[in-house]
Write a structure and sequence with these properties.
The complex is a heterodimer of chains A (about 120) and B (about 110). Chain A is mostly beta strands. Chain A is about 0% helix and about 50% strand. Chain B is built from no helices and nine strands. In chain B, the strands form two sheets. In chain B, strands 1, 3, 4, 7, 8 and 9 form a six-stranded mixed beta sheet that branches. The termini of chain B are far apart. The chains are: A mainly beta (about 120), B mainly beta (about 110). Chains A and B meet through β5 and β10 of A and β3, β7 and β8 of B.
Chain lengths: ~120, ~110
């Protein structure tokens, strides 16, 4: 059974950086289409983009270029989301979600990582 | 791309059926049969309920069904149960290796 386990909650000051990890178990990590989804407090889901863990090629959604970086390390079956120059509006729960290659749906989700940006 | 349009809330009594609409554009819902639906309970990660417009993953109750007509997809839940009370989100492929979610719908079981 494939599982995605994310790193724990983070509290950061404005201007700092944060790295969220998403470790996969139970399947071939190099074949994953790992997506990132943001959910601000009390708000809906927002697709941020994805990374092809086989090639390392990232695709960023609108509004998620520049300060947001996706990367992966197949040796430890882990995908990462790094956000730099944090702002208060980056406060949200960040989910990783694997997209199934046959259905193109997000069938497996991590538990979410809460990132709080506050001075 | 803009978020898909969903009603903010719907409600129904136990045993009844409800439908949640998801309206997109000719660039997303209208062009691809790749609409999926997710259920999210408070404080939990989303769960896939429907993929490719109308297909249920293994383990999802057959009370959940999906359909699409033109630029609008719909999720129908029949025989409402208390445990169905949650937020529901649609999602569509939008071309160019991008996806877009709906704004979400809060389902209240009266």
């Amino acid at each position: 059974q494939v599982q995605l386990v994310q790193s724990g909650s983070e509290l950061k000051k404005p201007g700092a950086s944060v790295k969220v990890s998403c470790k996969a178990s139970g399947d071939t990590f190099s074949s994953y289409a790992m997506n990132w989804v943001r959910q601000a407090p009390g708000q809906g889901l927002e697709w941020m983009g994805w990374i092809n863990t086989k090639t390392g090629n990232p695709t960023y959604g609108q509004g998620f270029t520049g300060r947001f970086v996706f990367f992966s390390d197949t040796s430890v079956s882990t995908a990462y989301l790094q956000i730099s120059s944090l702002k208060a509006e980056d406060t949200a729960v960040y989910y990783c979600a694997s997209r199934d290659s046959e259905t193109d749906a997000f069938d497996i989700w991590g538990q979410g990582t809460m990132v709080t940006v506050s001075s | 791309q803009s978020a898909l349009t969903q009603p903010a809330s719907v409600s129904g009594s136990p045993g009844q059926s409800i439908s949640i609409s998801c309206t997109g554009t000719s660039s997303d819902v209208g062009s691809y049969n790749l609409v999926s639906w997710y259920q999210q309970h408070p404080g939990k990660a989303p769960k896939l309920m429907i993929h490719e417009g109308s297909k249920r993953p293994s383990g999802v109750s057959n009370r959940f069904s999906g359909s699409k007509s033109g630029k609008t997809a719909s999720l129908t839940i029949s025989g409402l149960q208390a445990e169905d009370e949650a937020d529901y989100y649609c999602c569509s492929y939008a071309g160019g290796s991008s996806w877009v979610f709906g704004g979400g719908t809060k389902l209240t079981v009266l």
